[in-house]
Amino acid sequence: MSTLTWNPKRVAILTSGGDAPGMNAAVRAASALLLSKDIEPWGVRYGYRGLIKDELFPLQAVDFADIIRDGGTILGSARSPEFMTKEGRDIARDNLKKHQIDGLIIIGGNGSLAGALKLSDPDECGSSYTAPRVIGIPASIDNDIGLTGLAIGVDTAMNTIVEACDKISDTASAFDRTFIIEVMGRDSGYLAMTSAVASAADGVLFPEASRDEDEVVDRIVHTVEAVMEKKQRSRRALIIKAEGTSVNIDALKTRVDAKLADRVGQDRPAIETRVTVLGHVVRGSRPSAFDRLLASRLANVAVSALLQGETRMMAAWMLPFSIPEHVGTQSHADPYCWLVQLDEVLAETQRMHDGTSPLVQWRSKVFEHIEDVLVI
Ligand code: F6P
Asked: Residue 274's beta-bridge partner residues?
């Protein structure tokens, strides 16, 4: 914990990357906490792009008082190729200097947190700039950010998927149909795995299993046949497919239909498969109560850390595994939260992507174990 005394006058808040329900709750909580300490909260429009284009403005209570229930982000978000260059980041630092802003709360996913680390890099700032202090808040429906149990938006996205699956289940049951439902999550199978359990799906396809197309087709066919053999229940089959699974959903339907058609017997009707891609529907919606709370608590931890002079850290929610002290420490502001090093977050995120993270290996193992139990 830093012992520096730091009295910022203004702190900017920025949302970046894919929007996630609950981002507004984090903006609201951070702004209110800053105001309560007589520090001016400033907003940045459209993430890092707005930092470069000088779209910074003082946030008034009227701007954020009522936003806790809104999805998306009132600050806007954007992808900024210019920010990937040192020249772009120097313009961003010039704008921060111009507005006398020397602290930032950055709310977003992996790319946004990587940007925070670059912006505050003392080597890159050199003697021309005072490195701005930055604290990250994890927000991404994908739940693919290292060193946090959950990111803002995951709970709402999961609820949206489960609600959609419940509806699809009604119509699937009426016709004894099979549905393959594709859900967002980029390279992560987390949303697919968890919503498969919560919606009583019969199968789940997730990228962490690294199955090739033939294996995926065989697994679906096996699942559908297992469902059809059950006499005591509706013969609908729901298969949740993570978008990161390397098989195109339409190609999958064609191959599954062809294989199932081969198996139609005298006493067995044809099995019809339908596909639904939930797409960006999963990212919208009013945030769940849990996401509002998570966002507010993480914002509290982030603001307290920033005001204590911390920088290049992320506020994290209940870590799934214990971590060494140089990676992070339990927050003094909230016993369920941690303050973890941003560079360690990115390193763990990389391990989650390449499959070497123990957490991802554990998730895959659990799902390989329960796959056959899903069809009950
Ligand atoms: O990272 C959030 C996310 O919604 C992913 O699940 C998805 O793959 C991606 O963003 C979609 O990005 P875009 O909105 O740019 O199409």
From this structure: 179
Q: What is the mean pLDDT of residues 52-68?
A: 97
pLDDT band at 367 (very low <50, low <70, confident <90, very high): confident
CA count, 13 A, side-chain hemisphere, 306: 33
Q: At the top level of CATH, which class does the domain 10-153+287-355 belong to?
A: alpha beta
- Model confidence at 268, pLDDT cuts 50, 70, 90, reads low
**pLDDT of 266 higher than 70:** no
Q: How far is CA 109 from the centre of its chain?
A: 7
What residue ranges line ligand 1, CB within 6 angstroms? Answer: 18, 109, 140-142, 184-186, 243, 283
In the predicted model, what is the mean pLDDT of residues 364-370? 86
d(CA 159, CA 95) in angstroms, rounded, equals: 39
pTM for this predicted structure: 0.95
* 151 CA to centre of own chain: 5
Domains 10-153+287-355 and 156-283 share a fold: yes
Indicate which atom in ligand 1 lies nearest the CA of residue 191.
6
Q: Which residue has the tokens 């064609």?
A: 254
* Closest residue to atom 7 of ligand 1, CA basis: 186
Per CATH, the number for 156-283 is 3.40.50.460
**Domain spans of the chain, in order of start:** 10-153+287-355, 156-283
Say how many Å lie between the CA of residue 283 and the centre of ligand 1.
Answer: 8
Q: How is residue 339 written in tokens?
A: 């303050």
In this predicted structure, which of 91-105, 132-146, 176-190, 226-240 has the lowest mean pLDDT?
Answer: 226-240
